[in-house]
Design goal:
Blueprint lengths: L2 H5 L26 E5 L7 E3 L4 E2 L5 E3 L4 E3 L10 E6 L4 E6 L12 H12 L8 H7 L27 E4 L4 E2 H4 L11 E5 L15 E2 L7 E3 L5 E10 L6 E13 L5 H15 L6 H15 L10
Parallel strand pairs: 8-14
Antiparallel strand pairs: 1-4, 1-6, 2-3, 2-5, 6-7, 9-12, 10-11, 10-13, 13-14
Helix pairs in contact: 2-5, 5-6
């Protein structure tokens, strides 16, 4: 394998890595995306039949999850399942009082429909389908990050994606809101401004996290799209390379208000939960969002 090929071992990590697990052993199956998380405001008992696990705070919801209401004798019509998107957007709750007492399972299409409904009231940010129409219904060549298109890798930890205001630091609590798994000292590498730089063209410069000293990891991120990788040597080697355990940070111009950033979150979640989405489309839209957010709000970056 060439050094360039080694540098391009990427995937979605929100964590975008397949079988990426947190300290409770939650994971998504091979090539399945993590699309949402369980909110603590969930009422009643729910489980994921596809993964044979109960849904508790921060449980991963995967693209193939089958979410069911557990009839445990304590259930009621007031029970509800509350999810948040991978960037922190809150998805309208699934209330059993509105869903025939949650008789039917909740699947990816149900989550996507809620997000599409939300998008109707969101201002000033193109959904992917709007973006695709303006770009001639083709996958733009600007998508170079390869987060969704390349081979995933296993890992013992999961990093969260984030959307921030330009100039903000990224610390351990943003990437690992539940804390680092015991005994794990991740070696992380940052590719800045992946919306205009080819991350596969540079060697990683890993930063090793100290679990006992959770300080800022990456300082003063500029506007745009930034990709964070786990970096480690290949078997039998000592030189660290970027692995498929990866996540991203979108850093916005200061003129983007919380309301506008919320529309970005919902637009991303809607594409992520769309069963028709392809890896190329996800990559393309993510790169375009990085370009869009790097400009003052209200401007429009052409594909």
């Amino acid at each position: 394998m060439t050094r360039r090929a080694c540098l391009k071992l990427l995937t979605l990590g929100i964590s975008f890595s397949a079988m990426a697990v947190d300290s409770r052993g939650q994971s998504c199956a091979n090539k399945k995306l993590e699309v949402a998380f369980v909110e603590p405001s969930t009422i009643g008992s729910f489980s994921d039949n596809a993964y044979k696990r109960n849904l508790v705070k921060n449980t991963s919801i995967c693209s193939d999850s089958v979410l069911v209401h557990v009839k445990d004798g304590k259930h009621s019509a007031q029970d509800q399942l509350v999810l948040r998107g991978v960037l922190g957007d809150r998805i309208p709750p699934f209330r059993c009082s509105d869903l025939l007492n949650c008789k039917d399972p909740i699947r990816l299409l149900d989550i996507h429909a809620r997000l599409e409904e939300q998008l109707k009231g969101k201002p000033l940010i193109d959904s992917f389908r709007d973006f695709q129409q303006r770009s001639g219904a083709q996958t733009p060549t600007l998508a170079r990050v390869g987060i969704f298109r390349n081979a995933p890798s296993a890992s013992t930890f999961r990093m969260k994606a984030a959307i921030i205001t330009a100039g903000q630091d990224i610390d351990v609590s943003i990437l690992f809101p539940e804390g680092l798994p015991p005994g794990v000292s991740p070696s992380l590498d940052l590719c800045r401004n992946a919306e205009r730089n080819d991350c596969g063209e540079t060697l990683p410069k890993p930063y090793i996290l100290d679990p006992a000293n959770p300080v800022q990891v990456f300082w003063n991120l500029p506007r745009g799209l930034h990709v964070i990788y786990e970096a480690k040597p290949l078997p039998g080697d000592t030189v660290p390379v970027r692995t498929g355990n990866t996540t991203f940070v979108l850093s916005a111009h200061q003129s983007w208000t919380p309301e506008l950033l919320d529309s970005v979150m919902v637009s991303w979640s809607a594409l992520l939960t769309d069963p028709k989405s392809t890896p190329d489309e996800l990559d393309s839209y993510l790169v375009w969002l990085g370009r869009q957010l790097s400009e003052p709000a209200g401007g429009r970056q052409e594909p």
